[in-house]
Specification:
Helix content: 25-40%
CATH superfamily of the largest domain: Vaccinia Virus protein VP39
Largest sheet: 7 strands, mixed
CATH topology of the largest domain: Rossmann fold
Number of helices: 10
Distance between the termini: 68 Å
Structural class: alpha/beta
Strand content: 25-35%
Number of strands: 21
Oligomer: single chain
Radius of gyration: 25 Å
CATH architecture of the largest domain: 3-Layer(aba) Sandwich
């Protein structure tokens, strides 16, 4: 074929590709990467296409659903050639439910992909050329790990009660009677409590009209104790027959220790409101974590993967010389890490903006007889600069948005010898690590990922930094 013929064919192919680069068109691509959100990534005519429910190595027929000049979002139409990492999902609604993104990916590859995600982000955003990222911590089972599940409630077109997670990219409920990623001991309650709610004829909240009472069903279990809390989230304190129904549940389920009612009348996406009442039994469950007894209430923040959190805590304790040290646990919550580590140091100060969490932390310290820990209510960016004590070690566990810039500046000013930055968002972690290390004060010595959320693209990790000699 001569040069002019080849050029003519290339021009025709370019025109054909441009015609296909439109919403609703079907294209054939190979998935070559995974995005930070868990979608497969392929290329078509040198443009990026994001495709949920795919994995690296898939050859797929994809329908374009949102098209921009240089990238598009697609919907999987057909797998033409499956990846060697593709497996059948354990859940029959995995392709619809928004609770999991990666049930179609074999678990070993999930772990490898998460570690690679952290490495790439540390390089791209953090500017670390060769970050030392350890093999990811994983627990015995990638299923049945969740110790808490909160299900939105709704009604089907035939007025049947539905409870489940939202369909991907929508607020349409995918009805569930069991879930393979939650603790299997919660499954009987999910299926049977739905029937009881239907029979009680309590009105169900409608997100469009903002009318109705019940919004969510929340179940929480102590992984080590087996104790269960059941919480109904309602716009109304007055649910006719709730006390009798709560007693029936306590009698039916021996492991159920309490039934609670949370009041949330606001037009919000937040699940829980600020007020919770115990209807029957007690308003908390007991959990054993790192050999300590903790009390957890319906809205208490506690890692959903108990075993993975313990494993990460163990790595932190092993990597740090904590003997006779002063430790600050910023964003300490109920003392999940502060209390176990208090047994290894001279003193711990926990900082947390949520007063209810601090109340729980102090109670849990008393339960376990831990006297060398104190807790301060307030925003970390305000409390940390005002502390008179100079810490040797600071643990940071901020929300997904990362640390406030003033927190970074305070740390660079007070210069504790070691920092441990725990994060569930690699991008903001990399950003903050770059700020901490760019001035030559700190060196990133290693990152330990932990798989807190199997079957999803989310990953937790702890970054370790040491103060450099000045």
């Amino acid at each position: 074929m001569d040069l002019s013929a080849r050029q003519s064919m290339q021009q025709k192919e370019t025109i054909r590709n441009r015609e296909q680069w439109q919403q609703g068109k079907l294209i054939e691509i190979e998935i070559s990467d995974l995005s930070n959100s868990g979608d497969g990534v392929g290329r078509f005519d040198n443009r990026v296409v994001f495709v949920p429910d795919t994995v690296i190595g898939d050859r797929a027929l994809v329908r374009l659903v949102r098209v921009k000049p240089q990238y598009a979002y697609g919907k999987l139409n057909q797998i033409l050639q499956p990846s060697s990492h593709r497996i059948p999902p354990k859940c029959i609604v995995a392709d619809k439910c928004g609770g999991c993104q990666w049930q179609h990916i074999d678990y070993e590859y999930q772990l490898a992909a998460k570690r690679q995600q952290i490495i790439q982000v540390l390089k791209r955003i953090g500017g670390f050329s060769q970050p030392n990222v350890a093999p990811i911590i994983s627990t015995n089972s990638p299923l049945g790990y969740r110790n808490k599940a909160s299900y939105p409630l709704g009604l089907s077109s035939t007025k049947e009660l539905q409870a489940g997670y939202y369909r991907k990219g929508s607020h349409q409920i995918v009805n569930l009677n069991k879930c393979p990623v939650q603790d299997s001991r919660l499954n009987p309650l999910l299926a049977e409590v739905k029937k009881d709610i239907q029979e009680q004829s309590w009105s169900i909240y409608n997100e469009t009209t903002h009318r109705g009472q019940l919004r969510h069903l929340s179940l929480r279990i102590g992984k080590r104790t087996g104790e269960i809390l059941l919480t109904l989230v309602s716009t109304d304190w007055h649910l006719k027959g709730i006390y009798e129904q709560a007693q029936t549940w306590l009698q039916r389920y021996p492991e159920l220790v309490g039934v609670c009612l949370n009041y949330n009348p606001r037009q919000t996406n937040a699940i829980f409101g600020k007020q919770t009442r115990c209807v029957a039994g007690r308003g908390y469950l007991r959990e054993i974590f790192a050999d300590l007894e903790l009390q957890l209430r319906p809205h208490t923040f506690f890692q959903v993967n108990t075993e993975a959190a313990e494993a990460l805590l163990e790595v932190i304790a092993d990597r740090l010389d904590l003997h006779n040290r002063v430790l600050i646990d910023a964003y300490c919550g109920i003392g999940t890490f502060a209390l176990p580590l208090a047994q290894k140091v001279a003193r711990v100060i926990g900082i947390e903006v949520q007063s209810e969490a601090i109340k729980q932390a102090r109670l849990n310290a008393d339960i376990n007889g831990i006297a060398n820990v104190s807790f301060v209510i307030g925003a970390v960016e305000k409390v940390l600069p005002q502390l008179e004590v100079k810490p040797d070690v600071v643990i940071l566990d901020p929300p997904r948005k990362g640390c406030d810039r003033s927190v970074i500046e305070t740390l660079l000013s007070i210069q504790p010898s070691h920092l441990v930055y725990i994060s569930c968002q690699p991008a903001t972690l990399a950003r903050d690590l770059q700020l901490l290390c760019s001035q030559g004060s700190y060196q990133l010595t290693g990152v330990q990922p932990a798989d807190f959320f199997p079957q999803t693209a989310h990953v937790e990790c702890a970054a370790f930094l040491r103060l450099l000699p000045q």
